[in-house]
Amino acid sequence: MNSKYISLYGDIIAKIEEGTFPVNAKLPSESSFMSEYGISRDTVRKALNLLEQNGYIHKIKGKGSFVLDINKFNFPVAGLISFKEMAEKLNLHSKTIIHTLELESPGSNMMKHLDLTNDKEIWKVFRIRQINGKKIILDKDYFNSELVPKLTKEICEDSIYRYIEGELGLQIGFSNKEITVEPCSEEDEQLLDMEDYDMVAVVRSTVHLMDGSLFQYSESRHRPDKFKFTDFARRTW
């Protein structure tokens, strides 16, 4: 019995991904699925519940099930989450490509971003994020080498945050973020699969440890069709 609802679940996902059931479209009724697949109403409901749990559809009582946009990945504005953590949470087929990993002397602009009072070298890490075979994010990160003294290709391909917290024993605390939409740069066009898009969503962040120490400045450049930035807000008086 389990294989029947899993089979229906997989068929509906395939039709959503190929566009047979487009975004915001209403799915056929439970009775239609029962008749087409020769299955019980309980089996149909199990498949629909699983689709809703995994973010493919939204069920509205008395109206039916509607297709959600699966091509955009939720990226929390207020949260502090690494790409690795997000990819694992959303079960994405992802790959990180290291473009730049080097120690460099900071210019005046980067000294300001990282609140540095000396010209000690900083880590410059540029990583291309590939999801489902498409290069859609360029992460440009700069780290205070006094707080993050060592980085390797293996660490950067996995998770720098995991290394900072697990290996260095530091506790990442909070960040400040600025989000803009900007024209593509030549670098974006060279490193990302921009297709016909000429704009990118840019998230600039400064990230602090729990003790307030500023250890990272980040510029994350996203192809705009693939990401939506989400937040939760509560009205206060």
TrEMBL record:
Pfam families (alphabetical): GntR, UTRA
Biological process annotations from GO: negative regulation of DNA-templated transcription
Classification via InterPro entries: Bact_HTH_transcr_reg, Chorismate_lyase_/UTRA_dom_sf, TreR, Tscrpt_reg_HTH_GntR, UTRA, WH-like_DNA-bd_sf, WH_DNA-bd_sf
Domain HTH gntR-type intervals: 2-70
SUPFAM superfamilies, A to Z: Chorismate lyase-like (SSF64288), Winged helix' DNA-binding domain (SSF46785)
Keywords: DNA-binding, Repressor, Transcription, Transcription regulation
Annotated GO MF terms: DNA binding; DNA-binding transcription factor activity
Family annotation (Gene3D superfamilies): Chorismate lyase-like (3.40.1410.10), Winged helix-like DNA-binding domain superfamily/Winged helix DNA-binding domain (1.10.10.10)
Matching SMART domains: HTH_GNTR (SM00345), UTRA (SM00866)
Protein name per UniProt: Trehalose operon repressor
UniProt source species: Peribacillus muralis
Lineage of the organism: Bacteria, Bacillati, Bacillota, Bacilli, Bacillales
